[in-house]
Design brief:
single chain; transmembrane helix; GMP Synthetase, Chain A, domain 3; 24% strand; 32 strands; eight-stranded mixed sheet; binds adenosine-5'-monophosphate-propyl ester
């Protein structure tokens, strides 16, 4: 299949698209190859464009829900929802029920004036309402823009402004372990404080009352305690999700907006090598085909299997492998709101036994964290007998963690799929296919169907013209891809020039992943980490420039330089060199400690807890004569 997918990509993807999805208008054929794929991957020949199935009409929500209900599978479980608290808050939602909720919310959005192509932002915990909101947008042709709930008010504001999302769906709080995350408060701060004077106005904030918060007056500081959470309320702007959904005029049927293959589906921000995060735009048909095809083969999903991806929906893994890939394939999944160590480090393994999970997908950071805590938390109280496939994503997995995952979590009998991919790629790029590919601990092995990788020398200069630079055989260099796959992001929202320069402006005819790799003599690919100014902290992507600009926004800081440092658990730690302004006095240890602490808090506030610096190194400005 791989050979066919690269030698005859049009035939390969034609067959996949033709056999597995519902098209309202199927306007693609092999006689007209451009109706399958029309593209230019070479900046020297003109603007970059990638269009899959551009003349055909479909809808990804219809493919994810209606189709299964119409085929008689409406009573199949779509999600087992496991709440944060071990004793409480669990539910099951079938395809039929999910469709009903999505239709209602689609109608809610339409009633609020949301139209095809409009952006709707979500800033939510891992709750069913987030999945419902995402699918409702897709149903009515609106573009969803999910912002990870761990980002700060400021980071949220910059994403709202950039995407012009006039509607935001949020929650009073998120709950993780014994902590509340004040999401609504961050939305208030983003809109009131950071969006002021930018020309951007938010029309509606839809609030899921997850913790049953009480509204308090604006003069009172809201309590964030779990037993009596409180929020502020803006009468003209805020509205409760349940009030909208319980409105009798909201119908349970919602007409599908049939969209073209290349119509926008969602945008998702990710860090690059400049301070401004990039809103990558994914479109409908290619993404639909790619996420579901990768899901089907890489997780070897079979009817009646139970699959669980532990990623947050705020990241691409959650989009592709919590929501779209599994639902399009009609899968039954687990979704978990809480954290792996609450109330004990056995929580994940107990969930696996409870739902008899067959495929489990997580990140190396989590594997390393639980490995360090000790095997007894795995072995006592869980058998994990149901597991068949274990997936890893987000960062290189070191062989030690790989083997622990295999031997301890998987009882030595599961296939490990180390999946390399990116926000930009929509789905897996380099990954084993279980049962087909002999794995080597630490290697993501081989390209997925349709992916044509190349290793380029690390010495290349921008705008290198020819393909002759490709390294052959056993080699080490930059990982590039030389042919479009259906899941690739099509542009950076509002900045196509940046998209072209970042990904295609280095070697003509190649998409640059930004990662280094080694290819061994058996052809296996080993990812070696980012080669640009991007850090990978616990699988979260952060630009060094993003951190540096947050540092210099602090009143004591003149200059900053951020670099990664090796970290046993997180992959990369964040090491920051900070040059202070002349007036700042750090002559005593106490003052240095206080400022260091204050700067760490500042970065948490500016970007979010994922960006908390590990080390602050006060440095001195380099003067030529000194
Ligand atoms: O450096 C690679 C690393 O994560 C980057 C992509 O980050 P993001 O867009 O946030 O998406 C993460 C989830 C897909 C890549 O450029 N990365 C991701 N998966 C792996 C990996 N590095 C090595 N091995 C992986 N399996």
């Amino acid at each position: 299949m791989y050979r066919e997918s690269v030698e005859k990509p049009y035939d390969f993807w034609y067959k996949v698209a033709n056999e597995n999805y519902h098209w309202k208008e199927k306007n693609f054929s092999l006689e007209e190859p451009k109706s399958i794929l029309d593209y230019n991957f070479d900046l020297s020949k003109g603007p970059i464009h990638i269009e899959w199935f551009k003349n055909s009409l479909t809808n990804i929500c219809y493919n994810a829900l209606d189709r299964h209900v119409e085929n008689g599978n409406g009573d199949r479980v779509a999600f087992y929802y496991e709440g944060n608290d071990i004793n409480d808050n669990h539910s099951t939602i079938t395809y039929k029920e999910l469709l009903k909720q999505v239709c209602k919310f689609g109608n809610v959005l339409r009633k609020l004036g949301v139209k095809k192509g409009d952006r709707v932002a979500m800033y939510m915990p891992m709750v069913m309402e987030l999945i419902i909101a995402v699918l409702a947008c897709a149903r009515i042709g609106a573009i969803h823009s999910v912002v990870f709930g761990g980002f700060s008010a400021e980071a949220l504001a910059s994403r709202l402004i950039d995407s012009h999302s006039k509607i935001i769906v949020t929650s009073d709080y998120g709950i993780r372990g014994d902590k509340l995350i004040a999401l609504k408060q961050a939305v208030d701060e983003a809109i009131d404080h950071h969006c002021q004077d930018t020309g951007f106005t938010c029309e509606k904030v839809i609030v899921v009352n997850r913790m049953n918060s009480k509204i308090v007056s604006m003069d009172t500081k809201p309590s964030h305690s779990i037993s009596s959470p409180q929020i502020h309320w803006y009468e003209k702007r805020d509205v409760f999700y349940n009030d909208l959904m319980n409105d009798e005029t909201i119908s349970e049927e919602c007409q599908v907006e049939w969209v073209k293959g290349e119509d926008g589906l969602f945008m998702l921000y990710t860090s690059g090598s400049t301070g401004k995060p990039k809103g990558l735009l994914h479109t409908t048909a290619g993404y639909m085909i790619y996420t579901s095809t990768t899901f089907k083969y890489v997780f070897d999903y079979h009817e009646n299997d139970v699959y669980w991806c532990g990623a947050d929906i705020g990241w691409i893994t959650g989009h592709s492998y919590v929501i779209y890939g599994p639902l399009i394939c009609g899968a039954t999944s687990v979704i978990f709101e809480g954290i792996p160590t609450y109330p004990t480090p056995s929580r994940y393994w107990q969930i696996i036994d409870k739902y008899k999970v067959n495929q489990f997908y997580t990140a190396p950071t989590l594997i390393r964290t639980l490995m360090k805590i000790g095997d007894e938390h795995v072995k006592n109280g869980s058998t994990r007998d149901s597991l068949r496939i274990l997936g890893s994503v987000g960062e290189p997995i070191n062989p030690e963690a790989w083997l622990w995952y295999h031997n301890v979590i998987g009882n030595g009998k599961c296939a490990i799929v180390d999946t390399f991919w990116q926000t930009e790629s929509g789905g897996h790029l380099i990954t084993p296919i279980p049962g087909c590919i002999t794995t080597k601990p630490g290697s993501a092995t081989f390209p997925f169907f349709g992916v044509q990788p190349a290793v380029l020398p690390p010495t290349i200069e921008p705008q290198t013209p020819a393909a002759s630079e490709e390294l052959e055989g056993d080699c080490e260099g930059y990982l590039a891809i030389k042919f479009p796959w259906p899941g690739i992001a099509r542009t950076i929202f509002g900045d196509h020039d940046r998209y072209e320069k970042t990904y295609f402006g280095i070697v003509n005819g190649y998409y640059m992943t930004g990662d280094g790799c080694r290819r061994d003599s058996d052809g296996y690919i080993w990812l070696t980490g980012r080669v640009d100014d991007v850090l990978n902290v616990s699988g979260h992507r952060l630009g060094t420039a993003e951190l540096e600009s947050a540092f210099v926004a602090h009143s004591s800081v003149a200059e900053a330089a951020v670099v990664p440092c090796p970290h046993d658990i997180k992959g990369h730690g964040i090491y920051c060199y900070v040059v202070l302004k002349d007036h700042v006095d750090i002559s005593e240890q106490k003052k240095r400690d206080e400022l260091s602490h204050a700067l760490k808090q500042w970065i948490r506030h500016e970007i979010g807890p994922v960006a908390t610096p590990d080390f602050i190194h006060f440095a001195f400005k380099f003067e030529k004569d000194c």
